[in-house]
C-alpha cells in the first residue's frame, strides 16, 4: 500500500469515528484562542480550560492583558507548567497586539510568529481555527502518529507537517489535525499501546515502528 492509499483509508476512518471535532480549548475569539494555545504547551487542554476562566475574567482582551503585571498573570495561571515563562509571553504578545496591530490579533503567520511564546504550531492553530486558513498544526501527538502510521519518517515536526500536507487534501487540513488528535487520545497512547486492537495502527503501523515501540516498552517495564 502506498502512502497516498494509506492516507486515504486513514482519512475515511477518521471521518467515520470523529465526524465532529470541536476545538478542545475553550475560547470566544482569536485572542482568547491564542492565549489558550500558548498556555497549552506541555500542559493538558483540560488544565488550560480550568485556568482560563479566571484569567479571561481579569483580562478578556489584549488591552487588559497588557496592563496586568506579570506576577498577577503568573498567579492566575500558576497551575500551568512553565507559568513564569508563559506569563511574560502573554503580557508581551498582548502589548504587541495593542502597539502594532490596533488591538486585533493579526491574521498572518509572520506577525503571529514574531510574538513571544508563539511558534509555528501555535500560529498554525490560530490561522486555521480562528481565521479559517488552511494549516496543519503538528503537535507531539500528530508527530508521533504520523511516524507510527508510516506517513512520515518522524525526523522532525517540520518534515512531518510537510509530508502530511502533501498526502491530504488542503481543504481538509483544518479538520484532520483535530481528528488525529482526538483519535490519538481515544485509541493511541504513546506507551503500552495494543496495536492489534487499534482501528488504524492494526494495519497501518510500520514494522520498524512496531519494533521500536516494543523495545521502548520492554525497557520501561524493566525499570
Helix content: 55-70%
Mean pLDDT: 91
Strand runs, count: 0
Q: Termini distance?
A: 38 Å
**Total tally of structural domains:** 2
Look at the helices and sheets and give the structural class: mainly alpha
Shape: elongated
* CATH A-level architecture of the largest domain: Orthogonal Bundle
Text of the CATH class of the largest domain? Mainly Alpha
| CATH fold name of the largest domain | Endonuclease Iii, domain 2
Main sheet summary: none
Q: Any overview of this molecule?
A:
The structure is a single chain. The chain is mainly α and 223 residues long. The chain starts with a helix and ends with a helix. The chain has 13 helices and no strands. Helix content is 64%, strand content 0%. It has two domains: 3-20 and 137-222, Endonuclease Iii, domain 2, CATH 1.10.1670; 30-130, Endonuclease III, domain 1.
Key phrases:
Endonuclease III, domain 1; 223 residues; 64% helix
Question: Which helices and strands occur, and which strands form pairs?
Answer:
Elements: H1 3-17, H2 30-40, H3 45-58, H4 62-67, H5 70-76, H6 83-100, H7 109-113, H8 120-130, H9 140-148, H10 157-167, H11 173-187, H12 201-204, H13 207-222
Helix pairs in contact: 1-11, 2-3, 2-8, 5-6, 9-10
